[in-house]
Amino acid sequence: MACPHVSSANLSKPTPSDSVYREDCTQCFDSIDDPAGLDVCLKCFNGGCVGDRQHAKLHSTSRGHPLVLNIRRTRKIIERDEPPLKMSKLAIAAETEADRYEINTTVKCLECGIGDLDKEDPAVAPIVDSVMKANTFSRKEEVKAWEQEMTSCEHILTLQQDPPKQIESQDLGHCSKCDLKENLWLCLQCGALGCGRAQFGGVGGNSHALAHSQETGHGVAVKLGSITPEGTADVYCYTCDEERVDDSLGAHLANWGIILSERQKTEKSLTEMQIEQNLRWEFSMTTEDGKELTPQFGPGLTGLKNLGNSCYLASIVQCLFDIPAFQQRYGVGVEALPDVLDPAQDLETQLRKIADGLLSGRYSKPDSDVTVSEHSPEVPHQKGLQPSMLKHLIGRGHAEFSTMRQQDAFELLQHLVKLITRSKHPSGLPDPTQSMRFVLEQRLQCLNCKKVRYSSNEQDSIFIDVPLEKLPAEDGEEPKYKPVTLKECLDNLTATEIVELTCAACSSKGGFTKRTLFKTFPNVLVINARKMAVVNWVPVKVDVPVIVDDASFALDSYLSKGQQPDEESLPEDEGAGASNVPAFVPNAEALAMLEGMGFPTVRCEKALHATGNADANSAMEWLFAHMDDPDIDVPVSLGGDSGSAGAADPEKLAMLESMGLSGPRAVKALRETNGDVERAIEWLFSHQDDDGAVEEEETAAPAGDNKEAGSSELPANFQLQSIVCHKGTSIHAGHYVAFIRKKFGDETSWVLFNDEKVVKVEDVEEMKKFAYVYFFKRV
Predict the structure, then answer these.
(1) What is the Cα–Cα distance from 259 to 469, expressed in whole angstroms?
(2) Is the pLDDT reported for residue 165 higher than 70?
(3) Is the Cα dihedral 321, 327, 332, 338 positive or negative?
(4) Known binding residues for Zn(2+)
(5) Quick one: how many helices (H) and strands (E) in the chain?
(6) I need a labelling partner for 355 at 20 to 30 A (CA). Which of 91, 208, 217, 403 fits?
(7) Which residues are annotated binding-site positions for substrate?
(8) Which of 283-287, 554-558, 768-772 has the highest mean pLDDT?
């Protein structure tokens, strides 16, 4: 039977800017590897599952797009008597998808119910061919993100090469100063060949290329083993000390008789080595007696595939979706969403997709691509879900999270919480981050007149600065740090300190006492342990053991009692209606020292205020630890209120207008983000359909809607539920994993989530000591 839709569909090939979702469903993790395969819409290239959930059919019906390409992928069975060959030294050959899988495609019309249309029909054949050749969504995003913002430089653009000559092949075989035969860099100016610097991963180097540059002033070199026939290569400018791009590489190599089309890549690029280094940070997957830990499967025990450097995302997502509020908000039983125009670009849809993937157990099964043998564990690990669409949405418009570079897991948590908080929640569904929110209350008291000022601030996490005290080094080993307890860190956070302020009530310059306590407690308390030391003016992560018990503990002693009847408040400024706040006077000597180091005055004052106005060193350490804070350049404010949410700061509004972001939308963006310009830009980007109109109930919400976050009820007992751990000398490198307390019948055990690997662990005490982010549940 002929299908009338083929001739009338007006199909067109996907353009380079189109996303082709031909790996997994945009609304769940069913994929082309399932028996029924995946239906890719031939009109808009949405991917929909064909199994029991019928997301392809729902898309077809709601959009009026009847024609789909069904793609099914099955693993080829390859009989090998010997292990596969190792990578050749002469060329890097990658196993292609065609080598590993059988791909079956069928064109279908979902409206007519025809399951096998003619793929060779001129109306559909070119579209089918283009869909299969197009980069998948995840690969497209990966390529885009890995394209570091490398540029050329003046030293490459103005490069004057020595007269042309033919460099004989035998002279390209080893460094001109030593016998190293790999990691060789050719000076593009004179043709000298020298070895590079020693690289991670065991790649040798004696820095003879760098020495040559320093001796001659020749700045630009290319790594021979990285050159591809397509013209890509590692090009480095020693003068700039940066990796660069050379758009004239072919001509520059030809000057030395090297023909680009004849080159073959034989070594890993700098980027590939960077990825490998991040993946080298491994957490033990064996017991004390060397046995492999047994993989775990089931609901709540699903791993996430590493997308290159996405372990920071995987570890945070696993901990968030262990929180009951997140499970109830996005998990099974939540009312179905109304029709979404583009599911892959909708945060609500992608959070539901990740919840279903992690919690349902539907995808928690051994990797069928792994063949059990004497060389592999008895039970393979999971393949892991690929969270490409969620990662894209989280990173959209963000300078760091949109890249494939390793990131700070705690910064990602803060960013994701903001996105969820600001997103539009379907009617009647709560904001799950509310379970993490609480209020801190600060008390200031003048040492002279004893008048007080209370101010409060709603938060979703706290930082604890871990005390650093080195222990004596033993037998030439690196010095270790003295262990501290979590209670010591919380005591430091809530301790009374003296700050140098001028009292606006009595004009005394004698200073104030300042103390911060909890006004309310959350259901889930998130703590970020800052373990940073400044070495040679560079912040370096150090391993300080923080002792945290498995048993529950009380935080009752950290609850603020609030203003007492016998305490007199600082007077109100009747003219402005604002609080008469003490004036902060920064330590002049420390301020001068910090400014002399090049720090802006606003940041210096903020750092001195945050560290008790004590000295430049403490303030400098605070600055290094808070460089990326979104409000780092906002002047010190001692008031508890941020002003009217409805009034936009004219200066901030002008900044948005200078970027072409103006009108009611800009005003609303600033109001929605408490005047934070950076967040306002993100809000505008993620709310393009919002016309800026403010609903009446938004401007005058009933008092009941302004309920204070958290609860002040006692007892306030908390127990450690999950941790994010990190290995590496920097939070922007290394490797992140999550340990989560899980129920197995009547027993409770810690489970390690190491990307796609999910295993039960016997002892987590050591990892608890070196955790980076802690999640405590109220019990």
Answers:
(1) 58
(2) yes
(3) negative
(4) 175, 178, 195, 208
(5) 23, 30
(6) 403
(7) 185, 197-200, 236, 238, 241
(8) 554-558
